[in-house]
Amino acid sequence: MVIMPKPMSLTPELVALVERLEPDPGPEPGTEEHSDADVDEIARQLLDQHTPENLLVFAYGSLIWNPEFEVDTHAKARCDGWHRSFCMRLTRWRGTREQPALMMALDRGGSCVGVLYELRTPDLKSQIIRLLDRELDAKPATNVPRWVSVKTQGGPARALTFVADTNGPAYAGRLPLEDVAAIIARAAGHWGTAATYLQRTVAKLEDHGIHDRNLWRLQELVARHIMASR
Question: What is the fold of 32-229?
Fold first, then answer.
């Protein structure tokens, strides 16, 4: 007997009930945007650490459903020593000062199955800068780039990804899942709601055949919070 997968509780229609945009409050006091020179230097340091023939990027969250770069190939991969966690506090983008959101990052421990993208380009630095412009948060950053080892069906590889700096100002630590759900169900910023971010991430992971049990439980809890608030 074939067991059909259970549909998601957090549907696009349910998320649409809470979708809204909030004004952008700008960087937190005491932080600033990275300058072009900052980003260029970070890219240079990354290439000093590792200079691949083709850039591999390990995606575990929004890069899966909104990569914003041209991909040559992609495949499932596992990164050991890191796990998905809503451990970054956001006061802009998908949250505000009054109602902060949480964003997913890779935190220490466990393992994570994601999507490994291969970007064929002779200009590695420009591709890395493009990723940094998208993924780096305010300076000093909490979501930071790192080369990690990943495992694929074709063997081990080294890929660029973004992980949480536990000493970063936006690091929220490991929160109970129910607390995370309550925050995600309510938060929104000038990029939209945290619930949309979660819904799209879980849906796209499932499309790639990746079932994250923790995120699956989280989307169920967020759906309950939204329905209870209507």
Answer: Hypothetical upf0131 protein ytfp (3.10.490)
